[in-house]
Amino acid sequence: MEIYLAENLSLLRKRRKRTQDDVAFTVNIKRSTYTGIEVGNSKPSIEVLIALSNYFGIAIDTLLKIDLSKLSEFQLSELERGNDVYIRGSQLRILSKTTDRSNNENIELVPEKAKAGYVTGYADPEYIHDLPRFQLPFLSPNRKYRSFQISGDSMLPIPEGAWITGDFVQDWYSIQSGKAYIILTQDDGVVFKVVDNLIQDEGILRLYSLNPLYKPYDVKVTDIREVWRFVNFISSEIPNPSNPDEMMREKLLDLTREVEQIKRQISKT
C-alpha cells in the first residue's frame, strides 16, 4: 500500500503558510526530525503521528492513505474545517468504480431492489463490483457515470422504472439550482429531484419533485453521501407528450420555487 504522509504534510503545511520550524516547534520535535519526515527519509513514531494529526486536524488514516493532492479545493477545505461531509469514520470518502478489460470506466447500474443496499455499500468496492454495468459510448470518457432505477411518480413525466444516468459531482457548491440531480442521503436513500443549492447560506439542498403534488423538503449537507448530475434517462415507456396539464405542473413547480425564495428573503429581513 502506498503511503502519502510526506506529500500530505508538505501540502497541508504550505496551505497553512507555516514553516517546518513552526510545525516542529508545535509538535515538540526537532526541525531536522520533521524535515526528514516531510521529505520521506524517516518514519515518525506513533506519538509524533498523533501530534501531527492533532495539529492539522486530519485523521491518521487520511494522512497515511489518501493522496490529498488529488482532492478538489472544496474537499480539502471541508476536510480542514473538520466537516465530515467527505469523511466516513476515520477514512476519506473515495468513489468506488469498475472498469472493463480495456480499462474504460463502466457505468454501474443500481436497480430498485439494490437501492437499499446502496445506502451502506456505496463506498464498498466489493459491493460496487457486484453491480451490473454497461457502457454508453456517446458519453464523455472523462466523467464518471452511474445509473439508478427510479420508483414512484414524483418525477413524472419521467416514468416509474426508468433508468436515470448521472455524472459524479465532486464539488457540491457547483450544484446548479433548478437542475435535476440524483442525491444519496443516509435517511432517504437514493432520490431524484430538482435542486435548489442553499449550501452557502443555509447548509442545505432544497429538493423539489416535478409532480407538484409532492412538497419540497430540505436535506442537510452533512446528511448527503453522494450527488450525481442528471444526464439522461432510459425507459421502456414513452413519456406522455406535453399537454396543458403538464405545462400547468411545470408552472406550479416554478411558482413553488419562487414562493420559497421569497419566504427566505423575507425571513432574512
Description:
With 269 residues, this protein is of the alpha+beta class. The protein is 35% helix and 22% strand. The protein contains ten helices and eleven strands. A nine-stranded mixed β-sheet has the order 4-3-5-6-11-7-8-9-10. α2 crosses α3 (31-38). The N and C termini lie far apart (54 Å). The model is unreliable at 84-92 (pLDDT under 50).
Query: How many domains would you count in the coordinates?
Result: 2
| Amino-to-carboxy terminus distance | 54 Å
What value does the Rg take, in angstroms? 22 Å
Strand content: 15-25%
Number of helical stretches of at least 4 residues = 10
Provide the CATH architecture of the largest domain.
Ribbon
Query: Helix/strand/pairing class, anyone?
Result: alpha+beta
The percent of residues in helical segments reads 25-40%
Mean pLDDT across every amino acid position: 84
Give, in order, the helices and strands: HHHHHHEEEHHEEEEEHEEEH
Broad shape: globular
Low confidence ranges = 84-92
The largest sheet is:
9 strands, mixed
CATH superfamily membership of the largest domain: Umud Fragment, subunit A
Stated plainly, the CATH topology of the largest domain is called: Umud Fragment, subunit A
Summarize the SSE layout with pairings:
Layout lengths: L4 H11 L4 H8 L3 H8 L7 H11 L3 H6 L7 H8 L6 E2 L2 E2 L14 E4 L4 H7 L3 H5 L3 E2 L10 E5 L13 E6 L10 E7 L3 E10 H4 L1 E5 L8 E4 L3 E11 L9 H25 L1
Parallel strand pairs: 3-5
Antiparallel strand pairs: 1-2, 3-4, 5-6, 6-11, 7-8, 7-11, 8-9, 9-10
